Amino acid sequence: MQTGIFILDSLQINPLQALFFIISIIIALTVHEFAHAAVAARQGDQTARLAGRVSLNPLHHLDPAGSFLFLFAGIGWGKPVPVNPYQLKDGKLGDFYVSIAGIISNLVLGFIAALPFIIIRAFGGEISTHNLGLEFAAMLFYVNCLIAAFNIIPIPPLDGSKAIGIIVPRSLWPAYQRYLQIGPVLLIGIFMLSIVFHVSLLAPILDPLIALFQYVTSASFF
């Protein structure tokens, strides 16, 4: 399964699979942003809670531009969760927890999506690639792995860039803050270059997860 061109092809060839893709994006992004907000609130920062972000209502989390790009570029984002790092009770460690919460939530949701396949295989059953329920579960697994893999990249504004803040020494903190400011431009530049040279930024992270899924299910949904 390819990102970007995949969804355009699906809209032309397989509308049902495209629908599964859209629903999976809504679920995955909602859970991702909710996890950030919930962990921030638990850390003592109520900024996200006051903004109504500690919610599983997709309308509170979906960003129009990010959702549009997900459909037509394969990569996008949800509405950023407002966090005041100075209110986090564990300081830099708390910021780390908030940053990785979204990634972990998508990996957990991906594992839940894979459970039907694991259970079927454990009882010696056959997995049909034409079963609509399993098709949706496979898509939900893929999208969650996609979002987790994308956010692991340590380039701002992705979660990975904030997670590495915990290991940045105090002497390099000003440089790190400048990196956070220029990161979005850097990310767009790298993303454009990956399109021009047909190189996937996510392949080193995403491909092993897909290979593991296919090994466990003995089926090819992608």
Structural class call reads: mainly alpha
Poorly predicted residue ranges: 1-12
End-to-end C-alpha gap: 4 Å
Roughly how much helix do the residues carry, as a percent range? 55-70%
Instruction: Give the overall pLDDT as a whole number.
Output: 86
Q: Radius of gyration, Cα only, in angstroms? A: 18 Å
Secondary structure blueprint with pairings:
Layout: H1 5-13, H2 15-42, H3 47-50, H4 64-73, H5 91-122, H6 132-152, H7 159-163, H8 173-196, H9 203-217
List descriptors.
67% helix, disordered N terminus, 222 residues, 9 helices
Summarize the structure.
This protein has helices at residues 5-13, 15-42, 47-50, 64-73, 91-122, 132-152, 159-163, 173-196, 203-217. It has 222 residues and is mainly α. The longest helix is centred in the middle third of the chain and has 32 residues, at 91-122.
Q: Could you describe the 3D structure shown?
A:
The protein has one domain. The chain contains nine helices and no strands. It is mainly alpha-helical and 222 residues long. The radius of gyration is 18 Å and the shape is globular. The model is unreliable at 1-12 (pLDDT under 50).
